[in-house]
Write a structure and sequence with these properties.
Elements: H1 2-21, E1 27-48, E2 53-54, E3 56-72, E4 75-92, E5 101-120, E6 125-147, E7 169-183, E8 186-197, E9 212-229
Antiparallel strand pairs: 1-3, 1-9, 2-4, 3-4, 4-5, 5-6, 6-7, 7-8, 8-9
C-alpha cells in the first residue's frame, strides 16, 4: 500500500509539471507572477473506525509563485507553487450528547505543486482556471480542547483523544477551480480547492486501533498576484 501511494505521488508530480511547463507545441509565454493568498479551511478527518464529526473551520494562507509557459489554442498552461500555513484537524459533535465536545487543531506548512490551466483573457479581463497536483506538508504543532465527562458514556470512540501524532509528514493530492480578474494593477483570484491526504497522521498498522486517519480539507481562498516578468 505504501508503495502504491509513493508511486501515485511520483506520477502526479511528474505529470503535472510536464503538462504545465514542458509542452513545446503552443505559443511560448514567459510570465512569472508572485503574490499572497488567504482563506478558510473546512476540515475533517477520515477515520476507520469512523468518528462522528462536525466541520472544523480554520485559517489558511501563504505565498504563491506562478509561471505561465505557453498558450495552446485557447488554453493557458503553467505551473504554480505555494508555501502555505494551514490549520487542519477535526471537531467531534454528538447530537445526543450536547455536553460533550472535542477539537484537535493541527498546524501545518503545506507545499502544493500544481499544474495551472486557464481559459479566458490574457491581459485585462476574466479567466477561469483549474489547479491540480500533489501536496506535501509538515506538522508544526497541535493542540486540543475537550469538555464534558466522557467516562459517563459508552459506545463512543475516544482512542483518538490522547493519541500522539505519529507521522508529522503529510502528503496527498489537491485540486480546485476558480476565477481570476486580470487588471493593470495585478490579478485577483477566488478559488475553491479540495485536499485528499494519502498519508495517515496516526500509526495505522494491524496492531493499532485505527486503520485510517487522514485529512480531508475543503478550502475557499482569495489571492492577489502581480507580474515580475511578462
Amino acid at each position: 500500500m505504501k508503495f502504491n501511494k509513493t508511486l501515485l505521488i511520483s506520477i502526479l508530480l511528474l505529470g503535472g509539471w510536464v503538462v504545465a511547463s514542458y509542452a513545446q507545441v503552443g505559443e511560448q509565454r514567459y510570465n512569472f507572477s508572485v503574490g499572497v493568498n488567504g482563506g478558510i479551511n473546512i476540515n475533517s478527518v477520515s477515520f476507520s473506525p469512523s468518528v462522528q464529526q462536525g466541520s472544523l473551520m480554520a485559517p489558511t494562507g501563504g505565498i504563491t509563485l506562478r509561471y505561465i509557459s505557453e498558450k495552446y489554442f485557447g488554453m493557458i498552461c503553467g505551473a504554480q507553487l505555494e508555501l502555505n500555513y494551514s490549520q487542519q484537524g477535526w471537531s467531534e459533535f454528538y447530537e445526543d450528547y450536547p455536553d460533550l465536545s472535542y477539537t484537535r487543531k493541527m498546524n501545518y506548512v503545506n507545499i502544493p505543486f500544481l499544474a495551472h490551466l486557464a481559459f479566458g483573457k490574457e491581459n485585462r479581463g476574466l479567466q477561469f482556471f483549474i489547479n491540480a497536483g500533489p501536496q506535501i506538508g509538515f506538522l508544526l504543532s497541535d493542540s486540543h480542547t475537550i469538555s464534558g465527562n466522557w467516562e459517563d458514556y459508552t459506545g463512543i470512540i475516544v482512542e483518538q483523544h490522547d493519541a500522539p501524532i505519529d507521522n508529522k509528514f503529510d502528503y496527498g493530492i489537491t485540486g480546485g477551480a476558480g476565477v481570476e480578474l486580470r487588471t493593470k494593477i495585478g490579478h485577483f483570484q477566488v478559488e475553491g480547492r479540495y485536499y485528499y491526504a494519502l498519508s495517515d497522521f496516526y500509526s495505522t498498522t494491524k496492531k493499532d486501533y485505527f486503520s485510517r486517519a487522514a485529512h480531508g480539507v475543503i478550502s475557499v481562498k482569495v489571492a492577489y498576484l502581480f507580474d515580475l516578468m511578462k
